[in-house]
Amino acid sequence: MFGVAHVLGSLLAIFGATYALPLVCSLIARDGQAFTFIIAAGISAGGGLLISFATRGHSRELKPRDGFLLATLSWVLMSASASIPLLIAIPGLSFTDAYFEAMSGLTTTGATILSGLDNLPPSINLWRHALHWFGGLGIIVLAVAVLPLLGVGGMQLYKAEAPGPVKDEKLTPRITETAKSLWVVYTFLTVIGILALRLCGMSWLDAICHAFSAMGLGGFSTHDASVAYFNSVPIELVLMLMMVLASLNFARHFVALRRLSVRPYLQDPEAKAIALVLTVSVPGIALLLTINGTYPDFITSLRHAAFNVISMATTTGFVTQNFEQWPVFAPIWMLFLTCITCSTGSTGSGIKMFRTLLLARQAGRELKLLVHPSAMWPVRIGGRPIPDAIGDSVLAFIFLYFMTVVVLTFALLLTGLNFDSSFSAIIASVNNTGPGIEAVGPIRNYSELTPIQTWICTVAMLVGRLEVFSVLVLFTPAFWRK
Amino acid sequence: MKIVILGAGQVGRTAAYHLSREEANEVTVVDTNEDALRDLQDRLDIRTVAGNASYPTVLEAAGAAEADIIVALTSSDEVNMMACEVAYVLYRTPTKIARIRSAEYTNRKELFSEEALSVDVFISPEQLVTEYIERLIRHPGALQVLDFADGKVRLVGVRARRGGPLVGRAIRELKEHLPKADARIVAIYRAGRSIRPEGDTIIEEGDEVFFLAARNDLKRVMGELRKEDGPVRRVVIAGGGNIGFRLAKALEKENQVKLIERDTRRARKISELLENTIVLNGDAADEELLIEENIDSADVFASLTNSEEANILSAMLAKRLGAHKVMALINKPSYAELMESGSIDIAISPQTVTIGSLLAHVRRGDVVRVHSLRRGAAEALEIIVHGSDRSSRVVGKRVEEIRLPEGASIGAVVRGDEVIMAHHDTMIEADDHVILFLADRRQVEAVERLFLGAATR
Predict the structure, then answer these.
(1) Does the residue B132 lie in any domain?
(2) Per the structure, how many domains does chain B have?
(3) What is the per-residue pLDDT across B57-114, written as a single tens digit (0 to 9) for each?
(4) What are the chain A neighbours of B38 within 8 Å (beta carbons)?
(5) Which domain holds residue B167?
(6) What is the value of ipTM here, to two decimals?
(7) Partner of A264 for a Cys bridge, out of A11, A255, A416, B416, CB 3.0 to 4.6 A?
(8) How many angstroms separate the Cα of B74 from the Cα of each of A110, A182, B1, B86, B351?
(9) Nearest residue on chain A to B28, judged by CA atoms?
(10) Is B47 within a domain?
C-alpha cells in the first residue's frame, strides 16, 4: 500500500507542475489570479512530495493490481487538486461544484456547472481547458512519459488508464518512449489546431482553449453559448476536423505522420467504421431537419447537423444549436452515437468502435453458427482474427458498462429527477460527452442539479473515463485479499 | 541500442530480461507462441511481435529495419540462420547473432565467412554450458571458472574453507605465501553481501572469493583458500541430453564417466556415439541404481537433465548417498540460490553462462568478453583500450589515477602475451586488454563511458 502511495505522491507532484501553464497566462493577462495558481501548485506539489517522501522506504516495482488502484486514486486526487484554483477564484462555489467541474475537465466530459463563463478570469478559463488537454490523452500517460523510473510498472499503470480493449500494442519497445511519442503527436496536432483557429478569427485565448477542448474531446468553452458564440463556418470546420482527428487512434497518427502517408488510416478498421457512421448520420439528420422544416434550406441543416452530430458522436459536447428542439430522433440518435463512435487509443470515451465492431461480428458469428453448427468462424476485425479472450473481456465490459448506466440512472431517478434528464445525464457523463437533454440539455447546464445528483454524475464520469474495469475492480473482495 | 530477439524460449527470455533492464536498450521479442509473449510483456518493458521469426513481414513489424542487433535464439538452427540472412539482405542489420546448436554447421567455419551466411557471431548455449562444466570439473573446488584473453587469465570463484592457509588471514599475506604466483582477489561475498577487498581484509571461512590469476597459477592460489581437492577421476552424469552427452564426450578420455539416461532409445544412441563411457539406462533418482553403480565413490555427480526439479532431487540424493561433489543444472535463479546455500555444491545456471556472450556485443566500446556473475548482479568485463594518452581517460594513466565508479576494480591487464596483475601503479597502455570486475552491474554504463572517451573523440 505504501508502495502505491509513494508513486501517487510523485504523480501529484508532477501534476503540480502543470499549474505553470495558467500561471503564465495569468501573468500575461494580468487578471490577478497568479497567486491562486501558486497556492494550488504549492498544495499539489507539496502534498505530493510529502507523501512521496514519507513513504520513500517503500519504493518497489508495481504489481499489476497496483496499477488499478493507482490509476483510480490519481484521477480522484488530481481532480481534487485541480478544483483548488476554482474554489479560490470563484467566490461562493461549493466544493461539490468545484470538484464536479474539475472532474468534468480532466475526464474530458465538458459538462460545466458554472455560468457566466465569458466573465471568468482568462487564466481560470485556460485552466479548465488545460484540464481537458491533460486528461484527454491521459494524465498517467503523461506521467509515464516523464517518469521513466516506473519501468514495467509504467505499463501496468498505462493499461489501467488506456482506452480500448487491446492495450499491449506499443509503438516502441519502451513504454516511456511510447508515451512520449503519443504526447508529441498530440501536442503537434494541438498546435496546428491553435494556429488554424487563430487564423479563423479567434482571439489567442479562445483559440488555445478551444483547441485544447477539441483535441481532448472535452467540450468546455470560454463562452456560455459555446461555439454558437462565434457563429462562423470556418471555425466550425476547423473544430470538426480536429474532433474527428482526435477520435481516431493516436498510434495511427504517429505512424501516418512518420511515414507521411494516409495508408495507416485506410488500413484501420475503426477509422473506416467511424467514417461510415458519420457519413451516414450527418446527411441523414440534415435531411430530416430539412424535411421537418427546422431550418430553411438543406445547406443550413447540413452545417448544423454536421457540427452537432460530430461533436456529440466524438464525445466532445460543443453545441451551436439547441438540438433538443430537433425532431426527437436526432438527439437520441446523437446520444447513441456518443456511446459507440470513438476509436481505441483516442482521447474520447464510451464503448469504443473496436468493441462495437467486435460485438457485431460476434453476434454475426452466433447467427452463422445456427446454420452451420460445426463451423469454425474466427471473429475478425480488419481481416485479423481476434483471440477469444478479448471477445470475452469485451462481453464482460459491455455488461458492466450498461449496468453502470442502469444503476446510476436509477440512482438519479431516486433523487427525483425525471427519466429523460436522468438517463441522458448518465449517458452524457459515462461517455464523457457533456450535454444531454431536458435538465442537462444543450442550452442548459449541470448547475440545476442538486449536490447528490452532481456527485452521482461525477462518479459516472470517472467510471466512464477509466473504462469501468479499473474502478470496479477496486470494489471486488478479490482485489483486497492478500 | 535497438535489439530484436527472435525466440522467447528459455534463452530468449533470459536475454530479454537482462537486456531490457539496461535503460539504454529497446528490446523487441518475436515468437510464434502468443501466450509466452503475453506473459513476457507483462513482466518486462519490451515490445512483442507474434509470428515466424524469419519472415520479412514479421521482422519488419519487429523493427528490424532500425535494429542495431538481431539475436536469433529460436529452437531451430535453420530459422535462426535464415532470419539473420533475411535481416542482412533486407535491412543491412549491423550485428547478427544466431544460436546454432548443431556441430554439423558450426564445425564448418567457411559457412560463416564473409561471402557466405550472414551470421556475425554464432553461439551454442549447450556448447558454452558444457565447456563451463568441463572447466569446473578440471578445477575441483572452484565454483566458477571464467576465461579471459583466450584463457590466458581466468577468474575463479572459490568458497573459502578451513584448511586453506590464507583463511583467517589478511589478503596482503597472499604475496608472502606465494611469492612467485601473481593473483589478485577482486571480490569477496560474505553471506550474500559484497565486501570490498582491501589489503587488510581478513578472509573468513565460508566467504565466496573471486580472484584473477594467470592460468598456471590457479591451482596454487586455490590451495591457499581451501584444502586441495584431489583430481577428479570418477564422474557420474545424469541425463543424456545435449549437454550431458557433450560433457561425457569431452571427459571420457581422461576420466571414468558413467552416464544415466532414462529413455532407452536415446541411451542406446549415445552409447553408440560414445567410446569409453558407460551408458546406463535408468532413472537418476533411483536409489538402487545409484548404489549399484558405486555413487559413494564418485568424485563428481552432475545432474543435467531438462527438468530442474529432477536435477535438484537427484543431486541431493546422490550427495546423501556419498557422492563427493554434486552439481545440478538449475534455470530458476531462486532455486539456484536456495540450493547453493546447502544441499548442492554447485548450481549451474545455463542462462548466466550464455548471457555473457550476448552482453559482449551489446556493450559499447571494444568489449571482448562479458561474464555475468552471481546471477546477473555482478559482471566481469574484458575491454580493449584504444586511443592515446591525450584522447583517452585511461591510456597513460596509472590504475590509481583512473576514476572508476564505486564497486568497480581493475583486476588484470593483458599486454600481448604478457599477463600483468593490476597494482595501484600499473600503467595502462593503448591496446591493452583490461579486465574489470563490477560488483554492481548498474555501474556498467559508467565504465563504458569511461573507456569510450577514447573511441569517440
Answers:
(1) no
(2) 4
(3) 999 989 888 899 999 999 899 999 999 999 999 999 888 999 988 888 888 888 887 7
(4) 168
(5) 141-225
(6) 0.70
(7) A255
(8) 52, 33, 21, 15, 15
(9) A173
(10) yes
